[in-house]
Structure formats: structure tokens, C-alpha cells
């Protein structure tokens, strides 16, 4: 069994003439947290789209648990344990909190048990389980999006900007939850504009700049690299 749960090689994504991702490669070892950071428009969401099967890459390959899944449809990837927490949460605001969580557990045998675990991890969701999800605050909706993904029992969790639009206190809470999930053994690919926070949480980091990986390596090394700090972490 290889150490790598996920491996992306030579990924290119284009939208018409826009070359959003160019020759991006990275690996996610089992149980580790890797982070892709970079400015708005750097191509981070496009990489996650190609990994989760929502975007068809122009070229390159995605391997998951030793299998070439580049051409697998998105639903097959979810069934195999690759679950996305999408940018902007995308929860169903007219359904209740409980119904949103049930959707995450669609076709999962242990759904009820996992939902109970999520109510323990997120007491605020338990308190509001019968309210429509649209009444939750932005931070609570983000927690719901993460909890819904966890109910799908991921082996690898793909997170697209979970801290976006949240107050500093809620950003802290989201990162605490990410640490907790990671401690359960789930492999995490975290995409963030909040590069400093993401790299502090990560084992390995990849800096994306206009579609290309400009720097990569152990996250502590990137955090100490003057070029990375000056260009991406605000000095
Ligand atoms: P953000 O933080 O804004 O999501 P990002 O780093 O995730 O940024 P992408 O969303 O992957 O970056 O976008 C990379 C590039 O591809 C940008 O130039 C963007 O305008 C372009 N792009 C993304 N999606 C599409 C699309 N569906 N059609 C055309 N261009 C797109």
C-alpha cells in the first residue's frame, strides 16, 4: 500500500482560451493535511474541481488510492470516499439542518451514527437541527457544510476556502474543526486564500500563482521562506 492517497500529475485546466491551471502536480500522503494557497484567481478551485470530477482537465492525471480516476464521474469519487466542501458552502437553505446532514449521508450505512457524532462536534447544529439552514449565520453554515461532508464519511476531504467571509473568531473555530477532523485520520486537501493560517495547519504546502506552482515544500519551511513571506504572506 502506497503512502499516497491522492496524486495529481501534470494537471492542465482551461476554460476556452483561459489557461487556469498549468502543469500542477502534488501528492497528499495518507492522513496528512496539504494546503494549496494563492491569490484570488490563481487556479485553486479549478484544481479541486479537477480532483473532485466537477471540471474536466485538459490533460494530466489524478490517482486515488492507486487507481487512475481521471475519467471517473464525480459521484463515483464521492462513493469512493473523496468528498468536497465547496466554496460558498452551498447548503440547501430551505431544508432544515437535519435534512442537509441526511443528504450528506445518502447511501451511507452509518449515516445516523455519523450525524450523531457531528452533533457532538458542532453543538450549535444540534440546537438548530429543526430550523431551516437559511436561518444560520455564515459561520454556522460553514460548520454545516463541513458536517455534511463528514456525514459522507470521507477518506479525503477537499475543502475550498472554508474560512472565506468569516470573522477572525470564526476562522479560529473553522481551523480548530479542521484539526479535529485531521486527528481522526482523514486526509485533507485545504485550499485557502488565508495562506498563513492554512500553512500553519498544513504538513505540506503548495503556492499557486496564475495557474502554476511557484513554491512547494514542508509548510514550516514555506512559512520561514522570505520569498514566500514577502510575496504571499504580507511581509
Ligand atoms: P478564487 O479564490 O476566486 O476561487 P481560485 O484560485 O480558486 O480563485 P479559479 O477559480 O480556479 O481560481 O480560477 C482560475 C482562473 O480561471 C481565473 O482566471 C478565473 O477567472 C478562470 N475561471 C474559473 N472558472 C471559470 C469558468 N467557469 N469559465 C471561465 N473562466 C473561469
Automatic annotation (TrEMBL):
Entry-linked InterPro entries: AAA+_ATPase (IPR003593), ABC_transporter-like_ATP-bd (IPR003439), ABC_transporter-like_CS (IPR017871), BCAA_Transport_ATP-bd_LivF (IPR052156), P-loop_NTPase (IPR027417)
Biological process annotations from GO: L-amino acid transport
Ranges for domain ABC transporter: 6-235
Gene Ontology MF terms: ATP binding; ATP hydrolysis activity; branched-chain amino acid transmembrane transporter activity
Keywords attached to this entry: Amino-acid transport, ATP-binding, Nucleotide-binding, Transport
Pfam families linked: ABC_tran (PF00005)
Classification via SUPFAM superfamilies: P-loop containing nucleoside triphosphate hydrolases (SSF52540)
Coiled coil: none
Family: Belongs to the ABC transporter superfamily.
Protein name per UniProt: ABC transporter related protein
Organism whose genome encodes this protein: Stackebrandtia nassauensis (strain DSM 44728 / CIP 108903 / NRRL B-16338 / NBRC 102104 / LLR-40K-21)
